[in-house]
Automatic annotation (TrEMBL):
It holds the Pfam family N_methyl. Keywords: Membrane, Transmembrane, Transmembrane helix. The chain crosses the membrane at residues 21-46. Signal peptide: none annotated. This is PilW family protein. It comes from the Bacteria. The keyword Protease does not apply.
Length: 298
């Protein structure tokens, strides 16, 4: 039996009374709150990314400086070193005893202590290097049997891991196009990128051994007195890859120049690719190994 028409109309009217939707104002408020939430989330994400990039840049600069100084230290601390002759009065094939006299090898063919230990140029030209370090190359007795080398081989390497040639190990450092490069006997190869400055100063002993005094000098002031160099100060300025939103006038302290002047550099006024990038200055002093040899050769 069909329901009466009146009953059907009453039921539909009740259903319409219970159905509710969003008004235009409510819909706009909801959209606004959603957009605000997205904007806050995006701002937090960008801030987090900026902090992460800055921390990553700082860590990268620390790693690069550590590597550069490790390479420099390995060569500078060996500068001028010569072979220890554990049996000064014996031939290479003779047996060595613990009571044998120890002496430095003072006669090394092809190795000039005054020229092959350390040299420098304050403003290197196209075919020049800012810092040159050398030391005696020699072979050692090994426990690996080989008829070709009579169990003797050189274990010394230059800044590029090369064995070197003749009677010396040579490492030559220079900064070109924001890249610190090193060369042995051949062409230079990059070892560290993003280098804004590379400065070298030399510590000379200017008084006798009884009352020793050291003085900082640049290569021009050393003026050929390389035999009196006891230590070398190396300064590097490295810069990062990330562009930082920094306030105007943000600066860093540069390396001492060849004349010893220390400048303050505005990072917001630099040209690309260094503008608004993190800059860090690293300095270290390396003592040469062969002060006695240097003094006797002066």
């Amino acid at each position: 039996m069909r329901a009466p028409l009146y009953a059907t109309m009453t039921t539909n009217r009740c259903h319409r009374q219970h159905q509710k939707g969003l008004s235009l104002v409510e819909l706009m408020v909801g959209i606004a709150i959603g957009l605000l939430t997205v904007a806050v989330a995006m701002g937090a994400l960008m801030a987090s990314r900026s902090v992460t990039a800055t921390v990553s840049d700082s860590s990268l600069l620390q790693q690069q400086s550590a590597y550069a100084f490790r390479v420099l230290a390995q060569q500078l601390r060996q500068a001028g070193s010569m072979r220890l002759n554990l049996a000064a009065q014996k031939t290479d094939g003779a047996a060595i005893e613990i009571t044998d006299l120890v002496a430095f090898e003072t006669q090394a063919p092809g190795f000039n202590p005054n020229l092959d230990i350390i040299q420098g140029v304050d403003a290197p030209g196209t075919n020049q290097f800012q810092l040159t370090v050398g030391y005696r190359n020699y072979t050692e007795q090994l426990h690996i049997a080989s008829a070709a080398n009579n169990n003797r081989e050189s274990l010394l390497r230059n800044c590029l891991g090369e064995q070197g040639s003749n009677d010396r190990i040579l490492s030559r450092f220079v900064l070109r196009n924001n890249t610190l490069s090193c060369a042995g006997e051949g062409n230079a190869q990059p070892i560290v990128d993003n280098v804004a400055n590379f400065q070298v100063r030399y510590l000379l002993q200017t008084t006798p051994h009884g009352n020793p005094q050291m003085q900082y000098m640049n290569a021009a002031t050393v003026n050929g007195r390389w035999a009196q160099v006891f230590a070398v100060e190396v300064c590097l300025v490295l810069y990062g890859n990330e562009v930082i939103d920094m306030p105007a006038g943000s600066s860093y302290t540069d390396c001492p120049s060849a004349d010893g002047v220390i400048a303050t550099v505005d990072m917001t006024a630099l040209e690309q690719p260094r503008n608004r990038r993190m800059h860090k200055t690293f300095r270290s002093v390396f003592q040469l190994r062969s002060q006695g040899l240097l003094q006797t050769s002066s």
